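Input.
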Amino acid sequence: MDTVQHHYPGHYPLFLLLARTGCRVGEALGLKWGDIDFNGRFVNLKRSLSRGRITTLKNKRERQVDMSLQLVETLQTYRQKCKQKGLELGLGAEPEYLFTNSLGNFIDVNNWRRRVFDKALEKAKLRKIRIHDTRHTYATLRISKGDNIPDVSHQLGHHSPKFTMDFYYHWLPGKKKSEVDALDDPEYRVDDTEKEERILVAV
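Output.
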């Protein structure tokens, strides 16, 4: 994200939206300004951009996804720039859709991936991943820190929390010996420092 902000600042809002909401890139590119509720801090996902055409969402169900404070602030600032862009294009206001190309038209996802996404990864010295993997990153970060599974599932637009849990099971917290140790009698419950000392003595 730091690399994007430095080298591709105009694309930072889109990157941040993907990272903070877990929505699909097509859902992000299908967003209109009327879908954004800054006061309630949520986004209404109603449509998707696929192959240059607006379509329904993958599971046909509209949903609301929460926005973090950072995302709200970033999009508010970005909207002012879009208003200026709209004036320059003779639209009188910002383009209807949040993310558009220099002419105010839909973004070509494949072109954006090659020209911005892949190059940002390269500059950040990160391995090549798919745009869709930002969605998996959002999910794994939230699940690994113990966030509510039904909420994460809803944000992602999965058909059930069970599907989310099955898919991301290996990221669920709890695969630590310390959590198993907590079941032992009190005399066996020691802090990490004491555990390390016991191990060193044993060695």
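The first strand starts at residue 36 and ends at 37.
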